[in-house]
Amino acid sequence: MKNTIKSVIVIIASVIGFGANAQTKSESNSLLWEVSGNGLSKSSYLYGTVHMMCESDFKISDKTQKAFVKTSMLALELDLDDPSELATMQQSATTKEPLSKTLSPQEYQKLDALLKEKTGQGAATFDNYSLTTIMSLVMFKSLGCPPKMYELEFMKMAAAQNMEIIGLEKFNEQIDFLDKAYPAHELIDQLKYYDSDYFKQLITIYNSEQLDAIYQMTNDPKFMDAEDKKWLLDIRNKNWAGKMPELMKKESVFFAVGAAHLAGEKGLIMLLRKAGYTVKSVMN
């Protein structure tokens, strides 16, 4: 049950933060970045994840494994080993009031039609689930295969090395940012965009580490406008970049967060550079 909760929450994280920013064209495409300088005695590493993909498509590159074993702490968006966090996640999967009462008749009718199209079951089946949980389940269904998740795999690797695992934010914070970015009708609208073709194209681009192409695909206005980007990416990036220096000063850290958070003028790569660090792509 505990692993099931973790899996669902990682999928929810993909709802909250996978739209990608534009990567500066002069940068080499890479999912892995080394952070050094500015008084650090050891390098830390920043890795961009996609939160869910088919097991058959999943891979952790040699360069990523080499970087991982050099570190002594794993920092994820959320600490999925924290019992209190897992309890909060489990509680948030359902709602106090059924959706049939909290949504407008028009919203509920639209949700019902989309769920029948995507899952073969109407809204009544999901009436006591949160919209975020419903979206995660639709994404899971659209993937159409047994999933594998970077966060959970990195946690296994960390356990094998007796590494400490931390979260850069709390689950309640993630949900708060999502609520500010997407009112109910917008979250329902997004359900129609997730299908098997979407994931096939996304994973092909991701596995070839084409951050520019990921941007073109996932930062489409139908997924994220300027206001959404502020809440889902920019503010969270600033919060995380404020926590990273103290962590890196103490030990070598492997940061693994959604690929959306790495690039752009307000992305983690640029924020760390502005803070005085050398951040360079790792190609091999």
Automatic annotation (TrEMBL):
Keywords: Signal
InterPro entries tied to this protein: TraB/PrgY/GumN_fam, YbaP-like
CDD domains named in the record: Tiki
Domain of life: Bacteria
First and last residue of the signal peptide: 1-22
This protein's name: GumN protein
Keyword presence, Signal: yes
Pfam families: TraB_PrgY_gumN (PF01963)
Protein species of origin: Flavobacterium limnosediminis JC2902
